[in-house]
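Fill in residues.
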């Protein structure tokens, strides 16, 4: 199972300070454990709108009973435990007290995080943890890390969402004016990001089948750059992977397709659209969104 040990790495520089956001995941790609968890099943079935996540072990148990760590400075303490068991050889119960030397522990956190149902503007049903506010302090990163690891236990990924439940996608550079509408060149980065987000929003004609998962997969592959597409791909995000010599166009809206190009052969000055893309020398493949498992399998072969 994946685990986040340093949540700051995935938040700082992506979520602006004092920004409200959520951590969650879509319901289309649950782990086997997530599919059988009673609380998750109740949420998906509409029986409950929120549940406090609990479990018998691991991160789920820590959510309600607390996570203990070695106390600083480290020191060992002695405790006595009563031992009792049945000895079949002697056919009698054995009972005695024994002294153990253990590390002294202190409570790191006990968040009692609950999971709630939400819906993205594209119609995708997602499950999210309580709203967070980006702060550069240990307590915030501990809470965010707990949410991320709970998500990994129940799903195959986690994603950050803004207050409208739009996936937060880090855009790392702006190549030229054609990326944004006229008049945006003098705007601040935050204003440009807001403009881009507004352009990406829309209401598809049918419900999403994994928007969050597709973007989480592409994000986890650690793209070198993410920009807004040009020409006929102005509603797409461009993910660049230099070590894989790969350029991927992905659309936030459902009912579209993913376009893969060879980065070294791609001419950024050429005006491409979805009809002419397949004729370009850099074109590799077009993968439709209709089946999330098939999409994941096909895209995965190029990483």
């Amino acid at each position: 199972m994946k685990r986040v040990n340093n949540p700051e790495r995935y938040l700082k520089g992506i979520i602006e300070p004092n920004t409200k956001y959520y951590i969650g995941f879509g319901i289309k790609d649950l782990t086997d454990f997530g599919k059988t968890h009673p609380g998750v099943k109740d949420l998906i079935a509409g029986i409950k709108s929120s549940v406090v996540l609990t479990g018998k072990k691991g991160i789920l148990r820590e959510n309600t009973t607390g996570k203990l760590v070695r106390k600083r400075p480290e020191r060992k303490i002695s405790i006595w435990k009563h031992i009792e068991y049945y000895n079949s050889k002697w056919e009698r119960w054995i009972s005695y007290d024994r002294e153990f030397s253990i590390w002294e522990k202190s409570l790191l956190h006990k968040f009692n995080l609950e999971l709630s149902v939400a819906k993205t503007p594209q119609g995708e049903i997602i499950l999210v943890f309580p709203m967070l506010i980006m702060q550069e302090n240990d307590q915030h990163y501990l809470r965010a890390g707990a949410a991320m690891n709970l998500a990994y236990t129940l799903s195959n990924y986690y994603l950050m969402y803004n207050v409208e439940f739009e996936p937060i996608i880090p855009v790392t550079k702006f190549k030229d004016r054609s990326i944004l509408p006229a008049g945006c060149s003098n705007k601040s980065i935050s204003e440009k990001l807001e403009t881009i987000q507004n352009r990406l929003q829309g209401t598809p004609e049918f419900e999403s089948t994994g928007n969050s998962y597709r973007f989480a997969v592409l994000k986890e592959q650690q793209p070198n750059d993410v920009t807004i597409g040009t020409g006929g791909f102005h509603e797409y995000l461009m993910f660049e992977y230099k070590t894989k010599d790969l350029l991927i166009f992905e659309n936030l809206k459902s009912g579209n397709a993913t376009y893969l190009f060879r980065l070294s052969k791609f001419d950024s000055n050429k005006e491409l659209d979805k009809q002419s893309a397949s004729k370009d020398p850099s074109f590799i493949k077009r993968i439709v969104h209709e089946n999330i498992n098939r999409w994941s399998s096909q895209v995965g072969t190029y990483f």
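The chain has eight helices and 15 strands.
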